[in-house]
């Protein structure tokens, strides 16, 4: 198996070299960019396995790069920065970063964080069900269908995750409501119908030739896969 490649985007050569040395010692391949404007084109030309991204860069900053990247790729991203304000930390993660490391840092910690992300991804690949064609990432609240990420609301994610646990099982609307909402929420069972309608539309965009979620008249719903 070829070594995984890490793209280091860092405008300080000493830090970039330090990271590269430690990552290569851990059997990763590395390449380095020092300017934000070149990152997206580089990734589209030759996609690495993980992006180690400094926040403060000449040209495009790290947050802008991450935001643009998430429009076409779910490449794992670890942000590295000296800006430790909580708003930056949250904003970075909301834009799609997988992890966040603040300077000054131990290069050994960076290597450990990289390994953790790859272990999680390998686990997800191993847990992908050939029977259903779906992969559920509980940490990121993300579900993939036929390898493609579904753009789901939190309730749509939870609802589909429930159906995927027992393909073929019929769930009543009340049973689904109990698992989706707290008991003190006054929610109509027709909200389940609305979520199902949206899920069907999103699934049909990926598998237009299959009806995956079936209505059981007078009872509820089930998910069936070929």
Spans of at least 5 consecutive residues whose pLDDT stays below 50 are none
Main sheet characteristics: 5 strands, parallel
What class would the helix/strand composition place it in?
alpha/beta
Kindly, what is the distance between the CA atoms of the first and last residues, rounded to a whole number of angstroms?
32 Å
Structural account:
It is a single chain. This protein is an alpha/beta fold. It folds into two domains: 5-127, Rossmann fold (3-Layer(aba) Sandwich), CATH 3.40.50; 134-223, Winged helix-like DNA-binding domain superfamily/Winged helix DNA-binding domain (Arc Repressor Mutant, subunit A, Orthogonal Bundle). It is 42% helix and 19% strand. It contains eight helices and eleven strands. The chain has helices at 13-25, 39-45, 62-69, 86-94, 107-127, 154-165, 173-180, 190-206; strands at 5-9, 29-33, 50-54, 77-81, 99-102, 134-137, 142-145, 148-149, 171-172, 213-216, 220-223. The strands form three sheets. The chain has a five-stranded parallel beta sheet with strand order 2-1-3-4-5, with helices on both faces. Helix 1 packs across helix 5 (107-127) and helix 6 crosses helix 8. The longest helix is centred in the middle third of the chain and has 21 residues, at 107-127. It is elongated, with a radius of gyration of 21 Å. The chain starts with a strand and ends with a strand. The model has no long low-confidence stretch (mean pLDDT 83).
């Amino acid at each position: 198996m070829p070594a995984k490649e890490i793209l280091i985007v860092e405008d300080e050569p000493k830090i970039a070299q330090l990271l590269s040395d430690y990552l290569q010692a851990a059997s990763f391949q590395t390449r380095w960019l020092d300017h934000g404007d070149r990152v997206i084109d580089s990734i589209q030309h030759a996609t690495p396995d993980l992006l180690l991204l400094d926040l403060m860069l000449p040209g495009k900053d790290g947050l802008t790069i991450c935001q643009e990247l998430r429009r076409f790729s779910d490449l794992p991203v670890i942000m590295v920065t000296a800006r430790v304000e909580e708003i930056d930390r949250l904003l970075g993660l909301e834009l799609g970063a997988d992890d966040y490391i603040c300077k000054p840092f131990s290069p050994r910690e960076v290597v450990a964080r990289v390994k953790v992300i790859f272990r999680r991804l390998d686990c997800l690949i191993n847990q992908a069900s050939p029977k259903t064609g779906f992969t559920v990432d509980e940490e990121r609240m993300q579900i993939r269908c036929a390898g493609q990420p579904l753009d789901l609301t939190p309730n749509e994610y939870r609802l589909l995750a429930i159906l995927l646990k027992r393909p073929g099982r019929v769930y009543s609307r009340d049973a689904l409501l109990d698992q989706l909402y707290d008991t003190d929420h006054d929610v109509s069972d027709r909200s389940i119908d609305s979520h199902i309608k949206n899920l069907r539309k999103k699934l049909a965009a990926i598998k237009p030739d299959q009806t995956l979620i079936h209505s059981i008249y007078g009872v509820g719903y089930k998910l069936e896969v070929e």
